[in-house]
Amino acid sequence: MDKYLIEGGHPIKGSIKASGNKNAALACIAAALLTDEEVILRNIPDIEDVQVMFDVYRSFGGTVEQIAPNAYKMKLEDIKESHVPKDAAKKIRASILFAGPLLARTGKATLPPPGGDVIGRRRLDTHFLALTELGASVAVNGKFTFTAPKGGLKGADIFLDEASVTATENALMAASLAKGPTVLSNAAGEPHVQDLCRMLIEMGVSIEGIGSNMLTIHSGEGKTAKGMSALHGCDFTIGTDFMEVGSFIGLAAATHGELIIEGPLLRDMRPCKIAFGKLGIAWEHEGTSLRVPANQALKVNTDLGGMIPKIDDAPWPGFPPDLMSIITVLATQVEGTVLVHEKMFESRMFFVDKLIAMGARIVLCDPHRAVISGPSKLSGSELISPDVRAGMAMLIAAMAAEGKSTISNVYQIERGYEGLVSRLSALGGVIQGV
């Protein structure tokens, strides 16, 4: 689809099933390279980024077969190519995740600079640090070429210079076929990193410290006598996408709707509960479902002494950066004033000019901070999605606004959210894809 046509002012109501974790799916697809045996991945969201990752996997000589809704069978006995295609790399930042498994299994990996969301500088230095600590050499000349030493990668004691999710995942995958144990400190602990760890365990790797910032990896010890991967295949189910769940909570609250979200892992929602609670938004647990009631307070809960509260992001288990755009839109619909502080990316907050044009009362203090006073009456507008999360935030604003809105460049939204038009239409949203 090229654009969404949205008529705002219609509360969403009903029940929706949460999709599989997008970021876990991308890492687990890359991890399938570590074995020559069959891998089955389940609960894979049907989104653009997943299809691009499958295309890259096929480019190495692998096969991908859909065996059921959101379930795929993958196999790659003999890697014929260690180069990530340039066109695919430009579409998705997660293409960098093939560096670790390619390097571990073939001894070499060549990648063009990855694409993805333009939300500020997204450094790759931590990937280079981790892989060189395992013994690889890196050449940079318009592309990145990683080469393993003659004896293969060797386990190491690695301290990451930042808790990067994708660098942690690359280090995990590379260490899974290195010789000897690896200790990974200052590691990311997000739910999608935990999912990758559990998949690697099913493939024959021993990993200690899952969910913490220190991981110990006891590898599959390189290759077998026949030169094949020492890791075996697996049948693994991806966890729920807590970022999608947070987005749907925001949509329900902003439109004054009532929503039941089926299947979220409730422990993953704890960081979100504190941040949303500062805006007077709460939910209830009903078994394995989460219910967002219609009678939300929608009033800022001030800090002690009536001080203006701050909502900021942080590495896991802090509030996830990918939901800062959603929180920003929500704050425009809540009574009171709040400071939103996005610490990680210097361009992520620039989409607020579109919200201001819709009627939001926002002061952008600098590239990282905005003061928001609400509630604001939003009006329909012509919008362009700059990235996947800001695009979803604009969609929420359009559905909460009075009048009609058009959102262009919705490819960016559909990279991260499955079947939005049909799913939101079933909840009473007036949205059309063209």
Shape: globular
Name the CATH homologous superfamily of the largest domain.
Answer: Enolpyruvate transferase domain
Number of strands: 23
Total of DSSP H or I helical runs spanning 4+ residues: 14
Reading side by side through the largest sheet, how are the strands ordered?
21-22-1-23
Biggest beta sheet attributes: 4 strands, mixed
Helix content: 25-40%
Walk me through what this model shows.
The structure is a single chain. The chain has 14 helices and 23 strands. The protein is α+β, with helices and mostly antiparallel strands. It folds into two domains: 3-19 and 241-433, UDP-n-acetylglucosamine1-carboxyvinyl-transferase, Chain; 22-237, UDP-n-acetylglucosamine1-carboxyvinyl-transferase, Chain (Alpha-beta prism), CATH 3.65.10. The strands form six sheets. Strands 21-22-1-23 form a four-stranded mixed sheet. Strands 2-14-16-15 form a four-stranded mixed sheet, with helices on one face. Strand 15 and strand 16 form a beta hairpin. The radius of gyration is 22 Å and the shape is globular. It starts with a strand and ends with a strand.
What's the SSE blueprint?
Blueprint: E1 3-7, E2 13-17, H1 22-31, E3 39-42, H2 48-59, E4 63-68, E5 71-75, H3 86-91, H4 99-106, E6 108-111, H5 125-133, E7 137-140, E8 144-147, E9 157-159, H6 165-175, E10 182-185, H7 191-202, E11 206-208, E12 214-218, E13 234-237, H8 242-254, E14 258-262, H9 270-277, E15 284-286, E16 289-292, E17 310-312, H10 324-331, E18 336-341, H11 352-358, E19 361-366, E20 369-374, E21 382-384, H12 388-400, E22 404-408, H13 411-414, H14 420-425, E23 430-433
Parallel strand pairs: 2-14, 3-13, 9-10, 17-18, 21-22
Antiparallel strand pairs: 1-22, 1-23, 3-5, 4-5, 6-8, 7-8, 10-12, 11-12, 14-16, 15-16, 18-20, 19-20
